[in-house]
Amino acid sequence: MHARKPNLLVIEDEPAIRSGLVDVFTYHGFSVDSAATGTDGLERALRGKYDLILLDVMLPGLDGFEICNRIRAVDRTQPIILVTAKSNDDDIIQGLTLGADDYVTKPFSVTALVLRVNAVLRRAGFAQEQVASITLGDDIVIDTRNLVGTRANDKLSFTRREMEALLYLFLNRERPVPREELLHKVWGYARAAEVETRTVDIHIAKLRRKLEREPATPRYLITVRGAGYRLQVE
User: Fold this and answer.
1) At CA 224, angle to CA 122 and CA 170, rounded to 5?
2) Tell me, what CATH number does 168's domain have?
3) What DSSP letter does each residue of 117-172 carry, written as one string?
4) DSSP state letter for 195
């Protein structure tokens, strides 16, 4: 009996890049579908069942940010990697805030891209494991399985990657967790050099905006200088 091939959707408007990605991932054992426009890509994403969507940001019709946003409106757990020529923090933060699991900047190494896709697939079920809820202080309750929570009277929602990072920090709350360890255990990279550590910092900043009343002076998600991040559970 053969294992099921991972099902990948590539949404990319440049023909050479699109066909190259289809060939590369087919060679690596994926079943690959593709779309050349944002409109077609969104229709395929919502109609099909994909293990992961590789989504270019700059697309005709709908751009990748809008597609990611629309997918997240109906499916909070669909693994998505953004491919973008934009490498400044504002664009990266926008993509991650909309719920992308990872981002890759052009030009990219095909080998590194395959590693990132496999890493996201390996970690896709992490948020469903081990802990059903997290309580912080006397006003925050988080439902880890449904990616939601409350802070006093405010409702919270999380991306799967945010929840994975929060869960790992909770399970290791007795100590600070280095960025490199988060990259390995949460993002699934064997070596920290495979991905920018800025990715971790951006996710921590997003979590602080949701959990902390004053993100600049955090009460729960603490930076331990030279050691990493620690979740303070009171």
Assistant:
1) 45
2) 1.10.10.10
3) HHHHHHHTTGGGSS-SEEEETTTEEEETTTTEEEETTEEEE--HHHHHHHHHHHHT
4) S
Task: Note whether residue 160 is domain-resident.
Answer: yes
Domain assignment of residue 2, yes or no: no
- By C-alpha distance, which of 124, 206, 90 is closest to 158? 206
Is residue 108 domain-shared with residue 152, that is, in the same domain? Answer: no
Q: 0.70 cut: is pTM over it? A: no
Number of domains present in the structure of the chain: 2
Q: Which residue has the tokens 């949701």?
A: 210
- The closest of 156, 125, 124 to 143, measured between CA atoms, is 156
The sign one gets for the Cα dihedral 178, 184, 188, 191 is positive
The 10s digit of each residue's pLDDT in 88-104 is 667 777 777 778 888 88
Q: Provide the residue range defining the domain that includes 158.
A: 127-231
Q: What are the tens digits of pLDDT across the range 222-231?
A: 999 999 999 9
CA-CA distance, 211 to 134, in Å (whole number)? Answer: 12
Per-residue tokens: 196:
């920018």
CA distances for 45 relative to 11, 39, 100, 117, angstroms: 9, 10, 14, 17
* CB distance 158 to 166 below 8 Å: yes
